[in-house]
Design brief:
By secondary structure, the protein is an all-alpha fold. The chain contains twelve helices and no strands.
């Protein structure tokens, strides 16, 4: 259990101390954010703010996890390493996108096909490896079944599993990317979800099927491989994002960029897949889902009827154009996300307790 505390504290300290160094380095190179002309006019003043800040919390998370293992002497596990691989791999794709925006002076970054190809390669590699590396009990980091608070239904087979995993990874990475439109919005929301997954990992560890002999009801256990290490990863991410929020909150001194948003989305999807809580992520990450759906609704409505449902999509910009200040939108959306996490954890506890 000490691992969780170490990982969270180290992640927090590393981003609190490391992010200002990254800000100075990016500012010296002139790696500032481009602001699109079709966005809210109030955002034009943010032009030139250093971006690619995701480098800070990606690095902090990886270092915090590694140092935690060194300090405690506990071994790394395949599920934990795979989630970190997915996070870092998606971060690399986002970094290339950000780099092209800044250096090539192309506001849209990577071409759509190239960006999608990068995400597919990383996601497929994760999904394939997640079905390997069985432990002594035959448990792999992921299973070929759909899950809510635990696996249910029939085995869908390796091909459909890879397709399903790719859908989750792409949906969450792009969902966080769409949410990252206001100072601190995506970062603060991610902190709450990672906190939720820290709790879930601890609970699953306490009721793990690996220790089912000691349970009053041996059938009431979670068939998850190494849930405690998934909690360590979630804690490291929570701490790293929390520290980054100090510099990312309004007025932001640095933006996470696609480097950070794609990495966070990948980490969320990886945690959901490896902890067997795939569909529960819809509740836990409710704000990301809501904002993504606002874009889907806006585009669909315009193509079908020629009319827009919102003044602007994603949803946070709709409320800005209605007169809400940026800070007001962020805080209220944080409250919505907090309620989503509370409901998600409540459902997990109630359903999980009934296993």
């Amino acid at each position: 259990m000490n691992q969780i505390l170490y990982a969270g504290v180290l992640g927090l300290v590393l981003t609190l101390a490391g992010t200002p160094l990254l800000i100075k380095a990016l500012a010296r190179k002139g790696y500032g954010q481009f602001i699109r002309d079709d966005g809210p006019r109030g955002h034009h003043g943010k032009r030139g703010t250093p971006t690619m800040g995701g480098i800070a919390f990606i690095t902090a998370t990886l270092v915090a996890y590694g140092l935690t293992k060194v300090i405690t002497g506990e071994p790394a596990t395949y599920p934990g390493v795979l989630v970190l691989f997915l996070m870092a791999g998606m971060g690399v794709v986002g970094f290339l996108d950000d780099y092209i925006k800044i250096v090539k002076r192309r506001s849209l970054g990577l071409r759509a096909k190239a960006k999608m190809s990068g995400q597919l390669v990383v996601g497929t590699a994760f999904a394939v490896m997640a079905l390997q590396f069985a432990d002594a009990s035959g448990r792999t980091p992921a299973s070929m079944r759909i899950s809510f608070v635990t696996d249910f239904g029939w085995t869908i087979g390796p091909v459909l599993f890879v397709v399903w995993a790719l859908f989750m990874i792409l949906a969450m990475s792009n969902g966080v990317n769409l949410t990252d439109g206001l100072d601190g919005l995506a970062t603060g929301a991610a902190v709450m979800v990672f906190g939720g997954y820290t709790f879930i990992g601890i609970w699953q560890f306490q009721k793990s099927c690996a220790d089912a002999v000691g349970l009053v009801d041996p059938a009431g256990c979670f068939e998850v491989r190494d849930p405690l290490d998934l909690a360590v990863v979630a804690s490291a991410l929570m701490g790293a994002c929390f520290g980054f929020l100090w510099w990312n909150t309004s007025p932001a001194k640095i933006f996470m960029g696609d480097t950070g948003s794609l990495a966070l989305g990948g980490a969320l999807a990886g945690l959901a897949i490896c902890s067997r809580t795939q569909l529960l992520l819809v509740l836990l990450g409710g704000l990301f889902v809501l904002i993504t759906m606002s874009v889907v609704i806006q585009v669909g409505s315009f193509k079908l009827t020629g009319r827009r449902v919102f003044r602007m999509a994603p949803l946070q910009h709709h409320f800005e154009l209605k007169g809400w200040s940026e800070v007001l939108v962020v805080v209220r959306f944080w409250i919505v996300q907090g309620m989503c996490v509370i409901v998600g954890l409540g459902v997990f506890y109630v359903v999980g307790a009934g296993l």
